[in-house]
Amino acid sequence: MKRRISILGSTGSIxxxxxxxxxxLNDKFEIIALAAGHNTDLLNEQIKKFKPKYAYADxxxxxxxxxxxxxxxxxxxxxxxxxxxxxxxxxxxxxxxTAIKNGIDIALANKETLVMAGDIVMxxxxxxGVNIIPVDSExxxxxxxxxxxxxxENLIITASGGPFLRKSIEEMKKAxxxxxxxxxxxxxxxxxxxDSATLMNKGLEVIxxxxxxxxxxxxxxxxxxxxxxxxxxxxxxxxxxIAQLGLPSMHIPIQYAITYPERYxxxxxxxxxxxxxxxxxxxxxxxxxxxxLKIAYECGKIGGSLPVCMNAANEEAVFAFLNGKIKxxxxxxxxxxxxxxxxxxxxxxxxxIFDIDNNVRIKTRELIN
Length: 369
Ligand code: NDP
Ligand code: MG
Fold this sequence. Notes:
Blueprint: E1 3-8, H1 13-24, E2 29-35, H2 40-50, E3 54-56, E4 67-68, H3 71-75, E5 82-85, H4 93-101, E6 105-108, H5 112-127, E7 132-134, H6 137-145, E8 152-159, H7 169-173, H8 177-181, H9 190-198, H10 200-213, E9 220-224, E10 230-236, E11 241-245, H11 251-259, H12 274-277, H13 291-302, H14 306-322, H15 328-341, H16 350-368
Parallel strand pairs: 1-2, 1-5, 2-3, 3-4, 5-6, 6-7, 8-9
Antiparallel strand pairs: 8-10, 10-11
Helix pairs in contact: 4-5, 5-10, 5-14, 9-14, 10-13, 14-15, 14-16
NADPH dihydro-nicotinamide-adenine-dinucleotide phosphate is lined by residues 9-15, 35-39, 86-88, 91, 109-112, 136, 186, 188-189, 192, 250.
């Protein structure tokens, strides 16, 4: 039987690659809905090609030849077996919760969902018997390496180090938008690419891993690995380390997540060759240069509403950087300032989370202006 899938964020980097995977595996999937924001030209092309029943875009009237449905309606539609959440930023959270409440499995690319409300989302998934399969390459790797979480000593998350790995703090401070967007390994949406330049992305991923695998922050390690061949690893209590390797391509983790627990050849371009790769390098992160990583660990450990504040301030600061209003390094300073002012709410509920998210965004924009 075909797996019935909807994609939130079909016009984005992950969404487009997911459709390439689905095109290759077209006998395995039926697309129920595609959802995007502004890029209705591409969305309409996708609708023409993949013929979903339903579609969502910011502007309802821009949709041709599919029935309009809101994100909430898409996620409560039980025609779906699985929903790929590949929108970027905070908009992923609400629809993900709706899908989980409706017993629909989630392939989760949108890490902000777990950073904002990981405790709530994971508890709801458990309650509703819903699988959350990570799309993020590191978490996908760990998902493949974990058999029994109670035997795990540490999770080892790899980081490419981004475009400033070999640059000084001074150079990083002067970086232009173009330089920050020139990621050496991955071609991604702008927000995550800037996060990868500051290593905030790795910080968000540490929090994501804490929730997905229910493991203490002290047992999540980050190692810089510029080649992005080892996508992450799991160290077991007996000292055995299992890592997942592969050429750097998001098609593989996307395909893994949407076809799990099956495996298909799919879009694989060539066979993996250790001798062609020849060497793999690893080094500890530079915690002073990449302060965002340290901040994210601290926010995760303290918990409560602090990660919500961090995520909101970061997202607003990243937009301001992309719009030329602030410098790259200001992002971190702004996040720190917002965190200093934040009054922590312990165990925030969803309403608290959305309120805090909104308030922090308003205050961050005030600070920037
Ligand atoms: P992009 O910016 O490329 O894509 C974002 C998608 O979300 C677009 O389709 C966009 O539509 C859509 N969108 C934005 N706003 C709305 C809205 N209000 N309603 C509906 N759709 C909306 O991001 P990425 O694909 O790079 O990343 C998506 C998520 O996946 C992020 O959370 C990121 O952290 C995560 N991720 C991405 C990776 C990657 O390789 N790209 C790797 C690991 C994780 P439109 O363009 O039409 O406005
Ligand atoms: Mg990642």
